[in-house]
Amino acid sequence: MNKLRSFKLLSKTTSIYLVFTFLAFLVSALYLTFQADKFIQNEMEYRYNRAERRIRHHIHRNKESLDALLPNYKITRVTDDYQENRYPIYSDTTLFDTTTAELQHMGEKTVILEVDSLYYKAIIKSPMDDLVKLKDDIFGALIPAFILLALAIVIFNYLLSGYFFRPFNKILGSMKTYDVGQKTPIDQIETSTIEFRKMQELFLQMIERIEFDYQNLKEYTEHMAHEIQTPLAVILNKTESLIADEEVMKKQKDTVKTIYDEVTHLSKLGSGLNLLTKINNREFTKAEKIVTKPFIEKHVTSVTEMAQLKSLVIETSLNEDHTFFIDPFLLDIILKNLLRNAISYGKSDGPIQIKTDKKALIISNYGQAADIAEEKIFERFYRNHKNKSSLGLGLSLVKKICELNQLNINYVYENGQHIFKIENS
To answer: Is the pLDDT of residue 355 over 90?
Structure first.
C-alpha cells in the first residue's frame, strides 16, 4: 500500500481556502466582465439612439445638406427596396486620433432611418475607448488583488500556526514523549481553544486508563514471575536429589533427566520473560557512555573455558575509542547472549571473532546456516529446532535492547559465518 503524503492541518486548510478563493475570484472576474460588456452595450446603444434622434432632427430641417452633421455621422439616401432584415448592423473599428496621436476604439452602427416618408442610411460612430479601458481595468485589477489576498492569507496563517496552534503542538509533544510507567507527571497545557481542551482531556483520560492497566499487568507479571520461581526451585532441588540417587537413576534415568531439563527450561523462561517485560517498560534508565573494550574483554574471559570445551578459539580486535550510550546492565545482556549464541552454534572451522571500530561492534562465528530465514532470527520464541534447549528469547532480548537504545543490529550469513553487527544510529 502506498504511503499517503502528509500535510499540516493549517497548510491543508490554507491550500483549500486559496483554491476556493481563486475560483471565487475567477467567477467574479467572469461575472464582472459579463456585466461590463452588458454595460458597454447599453451605454453604446444609448449613444447610438441619441445620435439617431439628432440625425432625424437634422434631416427633417435640412434635407438638402446631409453632410453638415459631425464627421462621426455618414448619411446617404436609399430607396425603399433596401433589405430591412439586414439592419441595424453593429461593428467595432479603430481610428487614428490626430489630437492624441493614438488609435482610438470606435463603435459603429449602420441603421436605416425613415424621415418624412424618405429613407436614409446612417453610419454612426461613437468612441468607446473609455468603456473598453474601464473593462480592462476591472479585469486587470482582480489578478493583483488575488495575489495580495493570497499572500496575506499565507502570512496570516503562518503567524496563526505559531500562536494559536502553539498549545496544539505542545499537546502533540507531550503525546510523543509520553512513556508508559513514567514517573514524571504530564504538564497541563493552558489553552482557551475548546477543541484543544477536549483533546488534552481525552489524552489525559487515556493515559490514566493506560497507567491503571499497566500497573495491574506489571504487578501480575512480577508476582507470577516471583511466585513461580519458588515451586520451580523446589522441583529442581528434588530432581537434583533424585539425580544423586543411583538406584533411581538406574531405573528412571530418562524420566528424571527430562523433568530436570524441562524445569530448568521453565525457570529460565520465566526469568527471561520477566527481564523482557522490564526492558519493554524502560525500567533500566541508568544509561551512560561506555567504552566497550573492557566490557568485552571481561565477557570473553568468562566464556573462554566454555569455548575451549567445544574446541573453539575467540579472537578479538578491539578499538579503544568504541563506545555505546547504554545502561551497563543491558550491555551485559547483549554481550552474554551474543557470545553464548556464537559458542552454541559455532564450529571449529574458524575462530569466533569480535571486532570493534569507531562505529560498530561485530561478532561472528563459523557454522552451518540456520534453518530459519535471516529476517526471523530476532523473533521471540522462533528458534533453531536442532537446539531444543534454546528459549528463543536471547536474540529477541538483544534486538529489543538495541531498539530502545537507538542502536541498529543486523544479521547476515556470509562465507560460512554468522555475523551480527551493532552500530549507533
So the answer is: yes
Q: Report which secondary-structure segment, H or E, holds 238.
A: helix 194-244
Instruction: Please give the Cα distance from 24 to 2 (Å, whole number).
Output: 34
Band (pLDDT 50/70/90 cuts) for residue 127 is: confident
* pTM check: above 0.90: no
Sequence-distant contacts of 211-218: CB under 8 A, at least 24 apart:
211/180, 211/181, 214/180, 214/181, 214/281, 215/181, 218/181, 218/277, 218/281
Residue range 20-39: mean pLDDT, rounded: 80
Q: What is the pLDDT of residue 385?
A: 47
Domain range 288-424, its CATH number among 3.40.50.720, 1.10.10.10, 3.30.565.10, 3.40.50.300: 3.30.565.10
Class of CATH domain 9-160: alpha beta
pLDDT tens for 98-118 read 666 667 778 888 888 888 888
- 114: amino acid identity, one letter: E
For residues 331 and 199, give the distance between their C-alpha atoms in angstroms, rounded to a whole number.
40
Apex 312 CA angle, 308 and 314, nearest 5: 95
Rounded distance between C-alpha atoms, residue 351 and residue 312, angstroms = 6
* HSE (side-chain half, CA atoms, 13 Å) at 150: 16
Cis before 351? omega within 30: no
